[in-house]
């Protein structure tokens, strides 16, 4: 019974989380669609392990592909405990820790318990949910429903918190129709329609880092699959220059003067100074925001239009909050998740298309986290963990069948 409820919870998760931007806090406890459903999912998984003889599944954690990830996560737990004691705001430290361990537990329970049928359905349902979100993005554009604009030009955010996050979310799925057509060596109408829908949403998110991340991810995919296909890369730049405003936004990426005057440079410098002054242990997990006011008072030239800004860089945020060891450890965790996808791509026969699509996503995601705090946006970051877990478990099951 609990195994079935666990599977149903996965389906509910991948359907609702992309289209339900619920985000509230009860004290220091973060409450959002992903946190609530993930908690239910983990509960059912735990009940299955304890009451339905599922403890035998724990052997999956000994998989050699997971050993390095296990090591880095274990080390992060240790560093997180230290960070809690030095953090001035304990509630913020607890909140950030709960978020991170939501991803960890979700990842491991999927690796432990997901079966082949559940995995295939979960991928399909997630893609369908993202298509629904993208269709809503088109509706936003037609009826002007988005609250975000740049110079009176609407920016799509669809069902995500803001356009930056939505642009990054589109990059999770946009590579699939491209890879499918490359692998099949044929153009399929439904793939063309999906690709057009996702490109439209990516384009009118007006998020330049998402554009660059997409082009970089696509370049890596083409390099891996067939270097000759790199010749088609310029075709994906054409939509960026077709619309007058997107063309203007794209051209700013080529201006060194405008780049160096971007507010992000001030935000990055603020985070760097915080890291520099708290080099070993940082200011405490989740405590960046509680030190920010002090830094812009001490360095008024770093002030950016409002009293609180995130660093707009996930890695700098973690170096500032957890110091050199915590920051490096955090980076290695995400590198190892990416590495698992590469392992699957090199060894799988059945999941080549999904694996290569996720390689494109991981390249774009790691790149874009240098410009946005995407790893701290639960509605988005949770799928970096969940989809990687589903893919890796699919590969493990495939290997067992062949054996």
From TrEMBL:
| Database matches in Pfam families | Wzy_C (PF04932)
Q: What is its main location?
A: membrane
Q: Which domain of life is it from?
A: Bacteria
Bilayer-spanning residue ranges: 5-22, 28-51, 71-88, 100-115, 122-145, 165-182, 189-206, 212-241, 324-345, 351-367, 374-395
Per UniProt, which keywords does this protein have? Membrane, Transmembrane, Transmembrane helix
Q: Which cellular compartments is it found in?
A: Membrane
> May I have one GO cellular component term?
membrane
- Keyword Membrane listed? The answer is yes
Start and end of every O-antigen ligase-related domain? 194-330
Q: Give the membrane topology, semicolon-separated if more than one.
A: Multi-pass membrane protein
State the name under which the record lists this protein. Membrane protein of EXOQ family, involved in exopolysaccharide production
């Amino acid at each position: 019974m609990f195994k079935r409820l666990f599977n149903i919870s996965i389906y509910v998760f991948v359907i609702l989380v992309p289209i339900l931007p619920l985000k509230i806090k009860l004290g220091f406890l973060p409450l959002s669609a992903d946190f609530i459903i993930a908690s239910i999912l983990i509960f059912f998984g735990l009940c299955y392990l304890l009451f339905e003889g599922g403890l035998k599944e724990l052997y999956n954690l000994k998989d050699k592909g997971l050993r390095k990830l296990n090591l880095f996560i274990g080390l992060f737990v240790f560093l997180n405990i230290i960070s809690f004691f030095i953090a001035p705001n304990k509630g913020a430290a607890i909140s950030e820790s709960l978020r991170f361990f939501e991803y960890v537990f979700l990842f491991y329970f999927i690796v432990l318990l997901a079966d082949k049928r559940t995995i295939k359905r979960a991928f399909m349902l997630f893609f369908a949910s993202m298509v629904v979100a993208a269709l809503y993005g088109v509706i936003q554009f037609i009826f002007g429903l988005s609250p975000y604009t740049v110079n009176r030009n609407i920016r799509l955010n669809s069902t995500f918190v803001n356009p930056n996050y939505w642009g990054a979310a589109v990059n999770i799925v946009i590579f699939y129709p491209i890879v499918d057509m490359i692998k099949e060596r044929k153009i399929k109408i439904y793939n063309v329609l999906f690709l057009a829908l996702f490109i439209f949403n990516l384009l009118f998110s007006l998020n330049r880092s998402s554009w660059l991340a997409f082009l970089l991810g696509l370049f890596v995919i083409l390099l891996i699959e067939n270097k000759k296909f790199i010749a088609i890369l310029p075709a994906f730049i054409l939509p960026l220059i077709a619309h007058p405003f997107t063309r203007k936004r794209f051209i700013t990426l080529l201006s060194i003067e405008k780049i160096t005057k971007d507010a992000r440079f001030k935000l990055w410098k603020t985070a760097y100074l915080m890291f520099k002054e708290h080099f070993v242990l940082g200011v405490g997990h989740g405590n960046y925001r509680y030190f920010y006011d002090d830094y812009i008072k001490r360095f008024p030239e770093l002030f950016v239009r409002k009293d609180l800004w995130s660093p707009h860089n996930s890695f700098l945020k973690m170096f500032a909050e957890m110091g050199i060891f915590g920051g490096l450890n955090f980076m290695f965790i995400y590198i190892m998740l990416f590495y698992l996808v590469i392992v699957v791509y090199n060894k799988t026969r059945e999941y080549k298309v999904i694996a290569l699509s996720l390689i494109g996503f991981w390249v774009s995601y790691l790149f874009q986290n240098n410009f946005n705090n995407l790893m701290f946006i639960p509605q988005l970051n949770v799928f970096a963990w969940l989809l990687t877990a589903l893919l890796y478990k699919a590969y493990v099951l495939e290997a067992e069948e062949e054996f």
